[in-house]
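Minutes, project check-in
Item: structure for the 327-residue chain
Input as provided by the requester:
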Amino acid sequence: MVPSAGSLKNLLWVTCVLIFSFSGKCQPDAAQVSFDHLTPENGLSHSTVYSILQDQTGLIWIGTRYGLNRFDGYGCKVFLPIEGDNTSLNGPTVLVLLEDKKGKIWIGHREAGISVWDKTKGQFKRFPEEPDPEVDWTKISVRSLYEDSRGWLWVGTLGRGVFVFDENRRKIGHLCRICKTKTQALGNDFVFDFQEDHLGRIWIATDGKGISVFDPATQISTVVHSNDELDLNSYEKSLCLDRRGNLWIGTSGSGLYKLDLSNQQFEHFFFDKNKTPHTISHNIVTDLALDPFGKLWIATDGNGLNVFDPEKNSFNTSKPLQTFPRR
C-alpha cells in the first residue's frame, strides 16, 4: 500500500532516509543517529504494538494489544474501553489505524469491530451506529482499513471478507468467499491489505493463493493467479503500488511478487541461497513501502531490510550491526 502521511510505512522510510543521509547506508553511526524507546515504563499501555499513525496535527497514535495511545512528544494519553460508556473504545486490542480525509481516526479492533475518534467532540463512537442485520460488529476482527480516491471506506476482516462504505459511510457492498452474488466473491475471507490502482480498481490481499481485485465500474470481483507453483500462497500479504504502475505483493513465505498491471504479468522474487544471489533476503515479507525517490522498501521477518532500486533493477539488503546501540 502506498504510505499515507503518518502511516507506519511512512515512519519506516523516513527513518531509513535519514539514516542514509547521515551514513550512506542503513547501519547507523552511533555518534550521529540515536533512537529513543517508548515503553510501558514511560507510559505506553502495552509493549506489543500493531499499528502506528501520525495524524494531520502531528500527534502519534499507537495501537497495541491493550489500549490505544496518543503520543504528543512528551507523554502518552491511554484510551481503553469503559464499561457502560458508549463514547469510549469498543475494545482494548487495536489492530489497525486510519485517518480519513475528514480527519477522523478509524480504529480496527480484534473481536470488537470499529471505533471512530471524532476530534471535534473529543470522543469515540461506535461504527456503524445503527444495528447491521448482516453482521454483529461487536464481535468482528478488523485487520485492514483503506480509504480510496472516491472517499469509500474498505474494511477488511478476519473471517467475514470485505465491507464497503461510501463517502457518507453507508454500507454499499460486501465481498466474501461464499457471497450470494457470485460476481463479488473473494478468494478468501481473511483480508490483510488494499491498494487502489490507476484505473480505480481495488486490489485485495487475502489468505491463500492468488490476489483478488474488485472493479467498482463493473461491480465484478475476480481472483488473479500467478504462473508459478506457489501462486502467492500466503496467510498475510502486503501491497504497494510503485510509480511505474506495478503492484508489489509481499507474502509470508512465498517471497515477493511484482505484477505489471498493463499486461497482467508476474515477476517472482524468491530467496534461495543456492540459486539466486541478487534477490530478496528472506521469503517472509512483513511490509512494503515506497519512498519519495521511488525506491521500494521491503521489511522481512528475520533477515533485515531490503531496498529495491527500479533504476538499477537491483536489491540492497541492510542487517543490524552487532554493535547497534541499545538503550
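Outcome recorded: Helices lie at 8-23.
No further action items on this chain.
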